[in-house]
């Protein structure tokens, strides 16, 4: 089941803290997409399958010292499918080709039956 988790994070005016938040959120298992939202972009919106929202919030607290879990809600998958199937846009699928020419190895087997003893 897909979930949408909204977490309020304070950045303390540091530019690197946004990068820390993104890296920490991506490292959590089950995360599919991340976006910043809210006023002053102080909220992080995480969408994923079977997310542990409490674990994610604690992980963000370790990185930026303040993170507050605002909401957890389920995402309706039917709305996402409708967005994906627009009438004018079709995905392009490229065929895959094998690189190179296959190599065949052969050996010559000689018939040694004419000789009486092969050891000597």
From TrEMBL:
Domain HMA per the UniProt entry, residue ranges: 2-72
What's the domain of life for this entry? Answer: Eukaryota
Q: Which InterPro entries match?
A: HIPP46, HMA_dom
GO MF term list: metal ion binding
Please identify the protein, giving its name as recorded. HMA domain-containing protein
């Amino acid at each position: 089941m897909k979930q949408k988790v909204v977490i309020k994070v304070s950045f303390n005016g540091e530019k690197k803290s946004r990068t820390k938040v993104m890296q920490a959120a991506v490292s959590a298992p089950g995360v599919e997409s991340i976006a910043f939202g809210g006023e002053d972009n102080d909220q992080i919106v995480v969408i994923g399958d079977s997310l542990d929202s409490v674990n994610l919030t604690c992980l963000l607290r370790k990185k930026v010292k303040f993170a507050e879990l605002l909401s957890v809600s389920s995402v309706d998958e039917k709305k996402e499918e409708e967005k994906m199937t627009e009438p004018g846009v079709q995905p392009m699928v490229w065929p895959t080709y094998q690189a190179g020419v296959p190599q065949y190895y052969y050996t010559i087997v000689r018939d040694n039956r004419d000789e009486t003893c092969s050891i000597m």
